[in-house]
Design brief:
Blueprint (H helix, E strand, L loop, with lengths): L11 H7 L9 E8 L5 E3 L7 E3 L1 H13 L4 E7 L16 H12 L4 E6 L12 E3 L2 E3 H18 L3 E4 L6 H11 L6 E8 L6 H7 L19 H13 L3 E5 L5 H10 L4 E5 L1 H12 L5 H15 L3 E4 L2 H9 L5 H5 L1
Parallel strand pairs: 1-3, 1-4, 1-12, 4-5, 5-8, 8-9, 9-10, 10-11, 11-12
Antiparallel strand pairs: 2-3, 6-7
């Protein structure tokens, strides 16, 4: 007798019936970059299809995102000024704080997540305060806590510390609770590797380090057991969700963390992963939409509950079939 698994692949309907993994629009989180000014929608060169927005234009973008069924956005900000201690990170009238408030006022059911880190805010581009030529972990915690609190006051549903300082989840949780923001959640970049795949993001966020690199605080790509330790530490410190970043080169890590973690697991399909597919698509080397959907499916199959991805809008349209143009619908 010949065993014939192909019987279950014979037609699209049969394949749909037996498919083990599926991606839904509700699984997606769309990152947004905001900057000072008005009427701004400036293309990001290394990330085709992505833009810098001002507060007024990011509201329109958020409306389209919600119209597509995407439930959440992740906000990154380019501050008005940078300094040695990242003091603009926690100013109440900075662009992230204003954009969060504007989005929540216009679209109350949009889940708004904010990145908490100092790399965009320090004039040397590192994720923490520099003392004697080194990132001072404990001095950084105070600034991160103040930044997270300012985001909570603006209306953020979740703050997402991406700095990789030890103890930052506990410090932020304590600051939020002391100021009566017990309901503001923490999505921890618990497992963040010192990756080459962040390159386009650093252009978008103007956050490249001016000296050295981030290997002293982000994880060594060769280490896997350490990822479990980092995830467990952040769970014990009070994180509400755990993140692995990047996603594609670390699907084995996504799987291992999933097996150890009872919290919702987020994977970040980062800028370099996005840019590679876009570049190959533009050169006619791959089918961009198929590669996008395959990528997201593989991340979900590895164990992610939620996926942060620059493909979110394109994926929403592909997953829901042909959706009428947003401009037509909103006119």
């Amino acid at each position: 007798m010949i065993i014939r698994p192909r019987r279950l692949r014979r037609t699209p309907s049969i394949r749909d019936m037996v498919r083990e993994t599926s991606v839904s629009v509700k699984d997606l989180i769309f990152p947004l970059f905001v900057k000072h000014g008005n009427g701004i929608k400036d293309p990001i060169q290394s990330m085709p299809g992505q833009y810098h927005f001002s507060t007024d234009t990011v509201i329109k973008e958020a409306e389209e995102i919600r119209f597509l069924g995407i439930p959440a956005v992740l906000i990154f900000g380019l501050p008005e000024k940078k300094d040695a201690v990242g003091s603009y990170a926690y100013k109440e009238d900075e662009v992230v704080q204003r954009s969060v408030s504007a989005i929540k006022e216009k679209i109350p059911d949009m889940v708004v997540i904010t990145d908490v880190c100092l790399c965009e805010y320090t004039d040397y581009g590192h994720c923490g305060i520099i003392k004697d030529g080194q990132v001072d972990n404990d001095a950084t915690l105070e600034i991160l806590s103040r930044q997270a609190l300012s985001h909570a006051r603006a209306g953020a549903d979740f703050v997402a510390p991406s700095d990789m300082m030890d103890g930052r989840v506990a410090a932020i949780r304590k600051e939020l609770d002391l100021n009566h923001f017990q309901d503001t959640g923490i999505i921890s970049y618990a497992v963040k590797y010192a990756s080459a795949f962040f390159g386009p993001f650093r252009e978008a966020a103007d956050s490249a380090p001016k000296f050295g690199d981030r290997s002293g605080y982000q994880m060594d790509p060769a280490n896997a057991n350490e990822a479990i330790k980092e995830a467990i530490m952040d769970m014990e410190e009070g994180a509400d969700m755990i993140m692995v970043k990047p996603a594609l080169p670390y699907l084995d890590i996504v799987r291992r963390v999933r097996e150890e973690c009872l919290l919702p697991l987020v994977a970040y399909n980062v800028s370099g992963e996005y840019a590679m597919i876009k570049a190959a698509e533009q050169n006619g080397w791959i089918d961009g939409e198929r590669a996008m959907l395959e990528t997201l499916t593989c991340i979900k199959r590895a164990g992610a509950d939620l996926i942060i991805t620059y493909f979110a809008k394109e994926a929403a349209r592909a997953l829901r079939g042909r959706i009428p143009d947003f401009e037509f619908q909103s006119s």
